[in-house]
Amino acid sequence: MAGTAVQFELVSPEQLLLSEDVEMVVVPGSEGDFGVLPGHSPMISTVRPGVIHVFTGGGVSSRIFVAGGFAEVTGSRCTVLAEEALSVDDIDRAEVESDLQNAIDDLDDTDDPGEQKAAESRAITARAKLVAIDAPVYQ
Hints:
- The chain is α+β, with helices and mostly antiparallel strands.
- The chain has two domains: 6-88, ATP Synthase, domain 1 (Sandwich), CATH 2.60.15.10; 92-134.
- 28% of the residues lie in helices and 42% in strands.
- It contains two helices and ten strands.
- It has helices at 93-109, 113-134; strands spanning 6-11, 16-22, 24-29, 32-36, 43-47, 50-56, 59-66, 69-73, 77-82, 85-87.
- Strands 2-1-9-8-5 form a five-stranded mixed β-sheet, with no helix packed on it. Strands 4-3-6-7-10 form a five-stranded antiparallel β-sheet.
- A hairpin with a 3-residue loop joins strand 8 (69-73) and strand 9 (77-82).
- The longest helix has 22 residues, at 113-134.
- The mean pLDDT is 92.
């Protein structure tokens, strides 16, 4: 598949989660989603909470939620270093809704800027997970 594939690697703090040749990968960059195909210009981007779409066989083969991180792209490789990563199919709506409510409650209950920032980050991630559950798959 040389020349027609991109080597995609997804790494969490704990382990290498995915390493495979793919046709394309779409990453939720901090300034918008970006697609990576063979021959992409080199770049580094921060990653916002959202869904990575992996394309093989002419369609989306997997949807992976990431809570943020960094992406490095070369002409033949895309590596995402994710703070947290899990399959969209494994997200539990009730658990996420509870996490969101807890984060909102924590925001309301503290005046400490550090705790507010942490609670806001948890709320942003929870909202992004809910969007991921409901978002349609690229066709």
